[in-house]
Each structure stands twice: as C-alpha cells, then as structure tokens.
C-alpha cells in the first residue's frame, strides 16, 4: 500500500489508482496488515503473547517462532529496560516440594508491600524436589536459569518469563557441578555437567553436555553426550575445583 | 493548518509545502513538520510540494491527514533537535501528555491513523499507535480477540486446542 507515484512533485498530474486491497482494508476497520500487527505484538507483555498463541493457528505460528522471540526479547529490553528480578526458591509447608518465586526489586510501586503479593510471584512448584536442598545456579543464561536439587541430584532448567520448566535426565555421581551455556550459532541452550567418579579406587572426572530442545537432527530426547571422555589431566585440578566450589 | 489554496510557500522564514488529501483538500504545512514522514522527506528535500504543486496523498483522507499533521506540527521542533537531547523535562512531559491525549480517540479514527502512519512512514506516530493498540488488546482473552477481529467461531477442534492451551498456561489467563 505504498504510493510511489507521490514520491516526486512531477507526478501530481498522474492518475492515482486506489487498489482494491487498500479500499477493502479501509472498509473493514478490524484487519490490520501483518507488518503492523507484528509491531504491535512486539510491544505486548509476555503474558499476553502466551495467551494470544491460542487465538488461531497463524497467530500461534507467528508468536511461537524463534524470529519473533528474539525480536520480542530485544524490543522489551530496549524500550523499557526490565528492572532486575530476584528469583528465589522456598520449600512448601511440608518440605515435599519446592516453590519458585520471582520478586521485583524495583521500588516504583507505591507501597513496598505491594511487591509481596505472593500469588503474583509464584512461578511454579516442583513437586518432587526436596524443598530444603534446592539451589539456584549462580548466573542465569540467556533467559534460562538452572536449578539444582542436591538431595535428589536432579537438575531443572526453567524460563522464568514463560514459567516453563524441564527436568534434565539424571546422572548419578556423588559430586558434580553443572552450568548453562548458550550456543549462539544453533541458538540453543546447553547444560554442561562435570562429575567426579570413582573407578577401581581411582578418581576421574567426566564432562557431559545436554542440548535443550533436542539436537540439530531433531531428536528431542537424546541423553547427555560425553564431550571428550575423561577430562584431560591438565584440566583435572580446575575441574575438581569447579565441582567442589559449586 | 488547513488552509485551502493559501499562499505560495513564502510564509515567513519557514518553508511551506502543500499536501493534498484523497478528497482533494489542500493542507499547507511547514516542510519540517511534513518531513517527519519518511515517504515525503525526499520529495520535500528535492523541492517538491512547494508553490501550487502540492503532494497528493491518495490514501489519506482529509480528516485523517489533519490529525496526522497535528501530530507532526507538535513533534517537529523536538525532531529538529535530533530527538531533543537537550529538551527540558517540562517539554518532554508536555509531549507525553499530548501523545496520550492524541490517541485517546475512537477506534475507527485510530484505525485510519494507523494506516496513515504506516503509509507515510512517520516513525514516532507508528510507535505511538502500535503502543495504543497493544495497550487496548493486551488484557483480552483469545476469544475476545477473535470476536474483535471478526473471526468465525472456532471449530470444535480449535476449541479443544484453545482449552488445552488455557489449561497449560492458566497463569497467563489470570
């Protein structure tokens, strides 16, 4: 719906053709061109974006696409830099489960207690996670956070914005440390696990990688993948330190 | 602002251009204000729109164009300052107040404004109306959106998908 004919002053005498599509658009005041709709979507809060995925399949496809997610994340952080939020875990009343909360640190709200509306901040509960042994991993990575249940030796990865949470396949090791990384090339998160094992009275350390959202070949449920067998001797002290200071 | 057939562009120091709406109303406006439109900018830079010529805007009617120009005139001084880095807080607050008031309009007018901002590529106005639409729809349920947009009622299959989504993302519906 551009009108290039109007770009130059000489075109004043040109006959202007109003295309049927443009008059149809003007007639029905409900249909916005995709381009504008996309601009509007970028301004919506995450909650609305999630909800609008249910409007119809074409909205679902658009609002679930990686392209949109990336643009949305960029737009949200650029226009209104989100104040940092605190993510914290707390055991439920009987210690059988863990509740994960987010809490705003901004003081913009009129009364300080308004920030402690518990119902608003409860992101999700993890029913099988022992409440008194959960840790939030030190640094969130590209939107995702790693949680670790030391008692059950289970790792969870969660997205506080969408409240999606997934448990990583279990690895049995007495001592281990895990971290999250983001592969910018494949645009996938990867969890890295260093664990110390004992084999015939000798200690060795393994390093394994788990790709979230499946491998490039689309296998959703692939297991942890060993990186290079045993961690080379030169790095053993470093890996050992990483495990025991985690 | 709406001055049919007035002057030849020599009105004081500021250069004037003439814009012609789809219903043939002529609007004379400062070139600086009209240049907020990316679509018109080059034409104006090349000296178009002056004198008796006028730039025809076949997709914008006079009611909408007058509204668009109201925005441009208000925002032109700040835009000339390069986004007004040295604008006072009072100026910024005044522009913000103007913007809020400006989009507090009937939905059909808003719709024409969206299309005009899009066609004329007026960046500030595009974001302003997009923000307004986002604010209008962000609290609606998927069903309300469908009705607003005039979609047909969901098929049983679609309805089942909508219900499943609501179960999965209950918190997003609160």
Automatic annotation (TrEMBL), chain A:
Database matches in SMART domains: FBOX
Cited InterPro entries: F-box-assoc_dom_typ3, F-box-like_dom_sf, F-box_dom, SCF_F-box_component
F-box domain: residues covered: 26-71
Name of a matching Pfam family: FBA_3
Name of the protein in its database record: F-box domain-containing protein
Phylogenetic classification of the source organism: Eukaryota, Viridiplantae, Streptophyta, Embryophyta, Tracheophyta
TrEMBL record, chain B:
InterPro entries recorded: SKP1, SKP1-like, SKP1-like_dim_sf, SKP1/BTB/POZ_sf, Skp1_comp_dimer, Skp1_comp_POZ
UniProt keyword terms in alphabetical order: Ubl conjugation pathway
Highest taxon, organism lineage: Eukaryota
Domain SKP1 component POZ residues, every copy: 16-75
GO biological process, one term: protein ubiquitination
Coiled-coil region list: none
Domain SKP1 component dimerisation: 124-163
Associated pathway: Protein modification; protein ubiquitination
Subunit structure, as described in the record: Part of a SCF (SKP1-cullin-F-box) protein ligase complex.
Matches recorded under PANTHER family: SKP1
Similarity comment: family membership: Belongs to the SKP1 family.
Functional description taken from the UniProt entry: Involved in ubiquitination and subsequent proteasomal degradation of target proteins. Together with CUL1, RBX1 and a F-box protein, it forms a SCF E3 ubiquitin ligase complex. The functional specificity of this complex depends on the type of F-box protein. In the SCF complex, it serves as an adapter that links the F-box protein to CUL1.
Protein name (database record): SKP1-like protein
Species lineage: Eukaryota, Viridiplantae, Streptophyta, Embryophyta, Tracheophyta
Gene: ga14711
């Amino acid at each position: 719906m551009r009108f290039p004919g109007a770009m130059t002053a000489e075109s004043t005498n040109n006959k202007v053709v109003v295309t049927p599509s443009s008059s149809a658009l003007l007639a029905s005041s409900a249909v916005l061109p995709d381009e504008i709709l996309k601009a509007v979507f970028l301004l919506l809060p995450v909650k609305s974006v999630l909800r609008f995925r249910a409007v119809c399949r074409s909205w679902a496809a658009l609002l679930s696409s990686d392209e949109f997610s990336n643009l949305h994340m960029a737009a949200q952080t650029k226009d209104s830099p989100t104040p940092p939020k605190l993510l914290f875990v707390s055991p439920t009343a009987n210690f059988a489960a863990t509740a994960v909360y987010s809490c705003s640190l901004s003081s913009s709200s009129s009364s300080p207690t308004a920030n402690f509306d518990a119902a608003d901040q409860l992101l999700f509960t993890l029913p099988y996670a022992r409440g008194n042994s959960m840790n939030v991993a030190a640094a969130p990575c590209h939107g995702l956070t790693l949680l670790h249940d030391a008692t059950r030796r289970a790792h969870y990865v969660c997205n506080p914005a969408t409240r999606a949470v997934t448990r990583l396949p279990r690895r049995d090791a007495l001592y281990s440390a895990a971290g999250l990384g983001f592969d910018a090339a494949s645009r996938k998160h990867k969890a890295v696990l260093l664990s110390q094992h004992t084999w015939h009275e000798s200690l060795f350390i393994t390093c394994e990688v788990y790709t979230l959202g499946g491998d490039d070949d689309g296998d959703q449920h692939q297991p942890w993948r060993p990186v290079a067998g045993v961690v080379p001797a030169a790095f053993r002290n470093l890996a050992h330190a990483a495990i025991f200071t985690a | 602002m709406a001055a049919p057939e007035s002057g030849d562009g020599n009105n004081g120091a500021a250069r004037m251009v003439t814009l012609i709406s789809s219903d043939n109303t002529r609007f004379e406006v400062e070139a600086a204000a009209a240049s907020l439109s990316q679509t018109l900018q080059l034409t104006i830079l090349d000296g178009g729109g002056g004198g008796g010529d006028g730039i025809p805007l076949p997709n914008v009617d006079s009611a909408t164009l007058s509204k668009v120009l109201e925005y441009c005139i208000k925002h032109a001084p700040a835009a000339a300052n390069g986004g007004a880095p040295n604008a006072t807080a009072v100026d910024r607050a005044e522009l913000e107040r103007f913007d809020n008031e400006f989009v507090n309009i009937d939905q059909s007018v808003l719709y024409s404004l969206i299309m005009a901002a899009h066609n004329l590529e007026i960046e500030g106005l595009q974001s302003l109306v997009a923000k307004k639409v986002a604010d209008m729809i962000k609290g609606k349920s998927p069903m309300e959106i469908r009705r607003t947009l005039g979609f047909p009622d969901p098929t049983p299959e679609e309805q089942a998908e909508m219900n499943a989504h609501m179960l999965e993302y209950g918190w997003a519906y609160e």
